[in-house]
Structures are given as structure tokens and as C-alpha cells.
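Handout for the seminar on molecular recognition.
Each group receives one record of this type.
Step one: identify the two inputs.
Step two: read the structure output and locate the region that could contact zinc ion.
Step three: write two sentences on what you found, then compare them with the reference statements printed after the record.
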Amino acid sequence: MSVFPNFSRRKFITACTVAAGSRLIGASLFAQDPVVDDIPKQRKSANTGKISWEVRPFPMKQVRLGQGACQQAMEADRGYLHSLPPERLLHTFRLNAGIASSAQPLGGWEAPDCELRGHYAGGHYLSAVALMYASTGDEDLKRNGDTVVAELAKCQKSLNNGGYLSAFPIDFFDRLRNRERVWAPFYTIHKIMAGHLDMYLYTGNEQALETVEKMAGWVAGYTGSFSYDHMQRILGTEYGGMGETLANLYAVTGKQYYLRVAGRFDKKWFLDPLAEHRDELKGLHVNTHIPQVIAAARLYEVTGDQRYREIAEYFWDEVVGERTYCTGGTSNHESWNTDPGKLASELSTNTTEDCCAYNMMKLTRHLFGWKPEPRYMDYYERLIFNHRLGTINPQDGTMMYYLPLASGYWKTFGKPFDSLWCCTGTGSEEYAKLSDTIYFHDEDSLYVNLYIDSSLEWPEKGLRFKQETKFPEQQSTTITVVAKSPVQLGVNLRVPYWAQGGSVKINGTVLPAFSSPSSYLRLSRIWKTGDKIELSLPMTLHIDPMPDDQSIQAMMYGPLVLAGRFDSVSKEMLYGEYQPKASDQYKVPGIVADASRPTGWVEADGQQPLNFRTEGQSQPITLVPLYQIIDHRYAVYWKVNTQKT
Ligand SMILES: [Zn+2]
């Protein structure tokens, strides 16, 4: 989340916290998105979109997580969502609408004097509740979401301002119009609109759709009053995924009008170079811009305009290929500060904002839907297991903002009621939808993208699949089939980029062939009840050096980034706004490696799975998967002195 130029987030928090301190449908809509297809009262006028996904996700309610780290993260998130009382969430909206409220205000970015107030309470919260309902069927959370929607509709009515709904006064938009200092009013409006649309899409709340349509009407009126050039200047202030949500609203309602308004949020100076395959990302605030590319992806789907696809695919290639760390994360101090491929100088306590991971995963799903290439899911897996797991505190569901990749630092988490950062918002959504990409399908095949313990219902085929695994602790997975009657189907198993060898058994018989790394292994046959697939994916150590300095290396094991684990940190340092001092950094030793065996300085400790230790170094160090570290200092990147022997 960007703040003003030369005005750091931490400083802003200090300044704005007196009290204390898309999601989209993922897929295209209706004919293209089974999630939406499931809504009972489909609108006859709905637009089916122009571009279908080649492969599609299943409705989230048909996939359930089984035991494991993903389920633990989801349950921590669920507990956190339960801890948020609707009265507190509604407080600033009510005050802004002239409705009495005596609730205790939330703090952080929801504090009554913070210019982003409402982004979480009336936006991310609703998306998260809707997604959690889809993932778990949690009726209590749905009820709380319904309450917030109903009460916000009263606020919207009371504001009586052409559909405007916000927890801050409408004159913020005068400041935006006049290019006066204001944080990011459309960013917040986008979250509120997306939250309401998600409540409609995932829980069927019709009132939420009415509210978001009224809001869109207000947005249309406001943005329609400007010249093109004036609107382009307004787009200089962060505006989230306004174009995406408006395109979705068009797809849901079939009202062409929303598509025109969506187009007003195309920022020419950012999109034109991407369309011409020029990487001019240096100097840009990262999480301002990824949502604008998601909007482009969505506009490609609903208009068929190939230029939008060019933008999305080129952007993805540049970010993932040139600006991504071993964890899959991107950004340093929220920006891209360098030319492509220059990351060695970009290690700090403020690397890889969590929102960027959330938004890149969202974008990746679109690209994979258009063209199911394994590299998209290799990247998705990298982010899930290294950046999304381990950035929610399993104890209390609090979330991180940055995942520091400078060696010797530690993770910090928000306070439950007094942080409510952008990343608390995207995190609340993320851990409510960890099941949405495990399986995709087309007419005659299933894609098993991720190895996560889970079950899948596919009623159209009369099929059920159960995937049992402790992956990544276990280097294999087992999938069993229940079929009403035998079904011809291709089952595509992803063989990850890191797989060195591997094997697959069907009903106990090893298949003679396997597949190369980063591919899908297709098992095409008639499946019947009791059929069992056993996939073995042996993990090995491998290094991931910085593209511009081969002596700065991360150590990986299969999909996992291993981190050196050092001493623990105090509770004070774990939460909130602790400012690291130079003396807080653990002095991480350099590593000596043999040129002929670059992974030779690490070996399995033989005691616990996924635990490793250094070999032949100045001091013994334990390495574990980064996602397992919560309250210890750690090192991901090492300075390695490679010696020829
Ligand atoms: Zn964020």
C-alpha cells in the first residue's frame, strides 16, 4: 500500500493512529466460472464474457482442505475473522453517515482518523467472510457478513449521495480531484465494492449486489465529470483494482455501462509500455500496479481485446522472471527500485510485501486459466509454501506486512485490532481461499496443480477425489477415486520444476514412464471407484542464487526455501511497530562451499523431517523451511565463498 512520496508507512502509522497504532471471482464469470454458475438466481441479462478459460477452477464449496499447514493457516484466519465484532467494524461508517455508534473504534488503518478507514471493515472483511463461507460453510461468519452488508446499506442510504459509501467523508474526493494531498480514496472504495460483490457471488447476498451497483453509479458520475487528461492525473493516486471490480460487475449484470467506467481506470503511461513489451517498472510502487494488470487481464476476458492479454502476460514474465526472490515474493520498500534482474542490492527488512504475493497469485490464475502451462503453477506453489504459509501467526491469526529477506532479521505481525494494514486485508482473504487452485479442470480432464491434503467433489462427472498427503513433509501424495459409474478422464498431475525423477503408481503398479520437470503427467483411462494414484516426488537440495550475484545464494529443498534459524525474539519484537536497531540483527556468518558441490554445505539432520544442518562451517547452523519460522531470527540468503577443490 503506497503512502505519499518520501513518507514511510511506519511514519504514516504514527501520524494517523491516535487510538492505537479479489477478490475477484478469481475466474471469469458465469459460463466461465463455476463459482458464479452456482448462484441460484442467475440474472438472465448476465454477460458471459468473450474469452473462456481453457481450464477452470472448481466452485470452492466443492473443495475441502484436509489436515496440514494450509488448513492450520485457514483455521487461524477463521478464528481471527470470528474475533472481529460487526459493531466495531461498522463504527466509522456509521459516524460518517451520521448514525450513532458507541462501539470501541478499531485502530491502525481502521482508526477513526486514518484516511484508509473502511478498507478492511467494509471491504476485505466482507471478501474474507464470503470466501471463508465458500471454503468451510461457516454460517456464523456469513451471518456477520450479512449484518455488515445490511448496516452498510443503511449508511449508504443515510449518506444520500448518489450511492457513495465510505467510512470517510466524500470531500476526500474533492482533494483527489484537485490533486491535493490525500491517501488513496479509490483504493478503499475498490475494497468496499469488491467485498460486496464477493458477498453476492459467494453467499448469494442480493442486497450486497444492490449496494455495489449503487456505488458503481456514484463512481460513474464522479469519473464521468472529468476530461480524459484530468482522469489520467487522478490515476496518479493509488486506486486498487477499480477496473477489475467494474469489469466483474459488468459480467455479473450485463450492463455495458460498467465496462465503460472500468475503462476510465486504464492508466495509459503504465499500460502502454507493457503492451509494447518494454520493462519500465523501475521506480514504481509495486502493489499499486499489480491490481491494474489484474484489471487488464479481466478486461481481456470480457472484451476479447488482445492488447490487454499482451499487457498481462508480458508483465507477469517481467515480474516473475526478473524481479522475484527465491520465495516468489517481489518488491523492496514496496517498490521496484532497479533495472530487470538486479536483486542483489535489494535485500532489506522491508522486502516482499504480502499484498504483492496475494495479487500476483490472483494474476497467475488468470494466465493459467488461459493457457495451463506448468510454470504458472510452479510459481504459485513457490508462493504458497514460502510466502503465504508462515506469514500468518498460527497462534492468533495476525498477519505480516513485509517478509524480510535481509539476513539476521525476523518476522513481525500486526496487532489483532490495532494494525489492520492492507496486508491484514489481503491476508484475511488469502487464507480463506487456499483451496481454490489445487484442482482445475476442462471438459475431459482434471488438473492436480498442488499437493495439499484435500477432497474434491465433481458432481457433473459423478466423481469424488481424495488427496491424502503430508506434503511437503512427505514427498508423495495419494489420490483415491470414487465414481458413480466408470468415467473416461485424463488426470494431469503437475511434475514440479524441482522434481528430479519421481514415479507414479496406479493401483499399485508403477508406470513405466514419468514426465520431465515442470510438466503435467497425463493419466488417461477409465476411472472407477477404488482406483488409487500414488505419486512420488523426491526432493533434493538446490541453490537459488541472485541473478546478478551468484555468490548470494538461497538454499532450497524441493519447493521449500530453507532458512537458517537463529535465536528467538521477544514478544515485543514480534508484534506491532517495533523498529529494528542495528544491534538487533543477528550477524550471519559467511558460508564456504565446494564449487563441485554447491549444496554440499547443508545436509539433512536425520532426526526430524525437513530439518537440516550446516556441514564444515565456522559454526553449526540449523536450517528449516522458512514457513516454519515464526519467532526466530533467520537467514534466507547467504554470502557464499565458493572454493575449487
Ligand atoms: Zn499490503
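Reference statements: The first helix runs from residue 9 to 16. The radius of gyration is 24 Å.
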